[in-house]
Amino acid sequence: MELHEYIRVIDQVIEAGPFADSWESLCGYEVPQWYRNAKFGIFIHWGPYSVPAFENEWYARNMYMEGSKEFEHHLKTYGKHKDFGYKDFIPMFTAEKFNAVEWADLFEQSGAKYVVPVAEHHDGFQMYASELSHWNAYEMGPKKDILGELSAEFQKHGIVTGASSHRVEHWFFTSHGKEFESDVHEPLHRGDFYWPSMPEPNHYDLFSKPEPSEEYLQDWLTRCCEIVDKYQPKIVYFDWWIQHSSVKKYLRKFAAYYYNRAAQWGEEVVINYKHDAFMFGTAVVDIERGMLADMKPYFWQTDTAVALNSWCFTENNQYRKAADILCDLLDIVSKNGCLLLNIGPKADGTIPEEDKNILLEIGEWLKVNGEAVYNSKVWRNYGEGPTEVIEGHFSDGVKKEFTSSDIRYTVNGTNLYAAVLKCSPDGTYAFPALGEKDVSKMPNFHGIITNIEVLGFTQKLVWHRNEDALHVSVPGVQSDKPLVFKITLD
């Protein structure tokens, strides 16, 4: 379908409703309950940048920046940029060991309820079969419809499929290649891999110039809508820079189109965004590699990765411990959020053992403790304890030294769950929020506790309440991961 024909279809779908492309109309959006219940998902960064596997997934940009580590590495390893550019990694990206069944099995074992593969990263290579560009995984590289194969397999496993688009940043992503002799050079036209490679702006200047052209933004919109139409993802994740002023009109168009298509399918869907790109309440806020310090009245998401240094596979990934990720998951869920955890497969389509082992550890813990996470709701207090959680993007590199006094609460049915983020050496715990406080001082807890148990352990515990706290003693129970107390209320 030609660009102008697709734009006409988009306008027709929007005109038919129920959503119009205005913030006023889009404010009628409601976050679906299935998403609120899911709590834990997997993000996948995989593409031609997985071939050099050097530094991170921004290799396509940084290899053209003279003086950068990637520039020097590229010269040393692959030769001059005019002879071997980023596009030349595509034939090397064969994914010969990719197996959608194995991936889906692993993600199911991890306890993930939804998976969001990157459909198109900043580099402009589509990981699906596209009719809008030949630079895609179905026609080049793997010669497979990666998103299509994964979507089909996830459906068999009862896993919700999403898709992410980072396309808008492609406006400038390979622009530094024009500053010296490389394979990025004019003339560039729509359909060319490096098009348009415009000068890189200040990433957080909402009015930077030159701004994306109408032709580029229409191309961006149709690519996003093509993903919606071909694969019917229930989540569409957008990376940053869509908050640029020039993109706003097209964000409204996309949201209206996506929500209207979902209404036609009889589905409820989600858009993830950052940095106030969307009007608050029209989609779901995402915090990149960060947390929120307190419980929020709105539902939100954190996206982070198993590796601290990169979203894609590299030879030197700095991996996080499964226990630390689980502490983050409990903190996020207790504050009315969900966690999207990224892994980075190798270029051949295998998932690194480190990524795999982290996911399996998380999955084993969730098999035992999942009732405190899935389908749970927030309690009156998200938690308590001395350890400060820094609020904001890009704070996951700050190691949180949780103690046995750091507790996170959730509610599910008639049970209150108190997750202790680090085990006590002597097996004794205090939960101040559950003390027998003065009944006249609301909103203190004044419910009746009928039973307490530790999920995954059969040891008998002893408990009592006084004015200060609920006190629990369970000697001999130790774990290197969070410990969850199931407190049954009457």
Structural category is alpha/beta
SSE succession: HHHEHHHEHEHEHEEEHEHEEEEEEEE
Rg, rounded, reads 24 Å
Q: List low-pLDDT spans.
A: none
Q: Reading side by side through the largest sheet, how are the strands ordered?
A: 1-2-3-4-5-6-7-8
Can you offer a commentary on this structure?
With 490 residues, the protein is α/β, with parallel strands linked by helices. The chain has two domains: 3-372, TIM Barrel; 377-489, Immunoglobulin-like (Sandwich). It has eleven helices and 16 strands. It has helices at residues 3-16, 23-26, 33-38, 59-62, 69-78, 100-110, 146-156, 214-231, 248-265, 322-334, 353-369, and strands at residues 40-44, 114-120, 160-165, 235-238, 270-273, 284-288, 300-305, 337-343, 377-384, 407-412, 415-420, 428-431, 449-454, 462-465, 470-473, 483-489. The strands form three sheets. Strands 1-2-3-4-5-6-7-8 form an eight-stranded parallel β-barrel. Strands 9-10-11-16-13 form a five-stranded antiparallel β-sheet, with helices on one face. The chain has a three-stranded antiparallel β-sheet with strand order 12-15-14, with no helix packed on it. Helix 1 (3-16) packs across helix 8, helix 8 runs parallel beside helix 9 (248-265) and helix 10 (322-334) crosses helix 11 (353-369). The N and C termini lie far apart (61 Å). The mean pLDDT is 97.
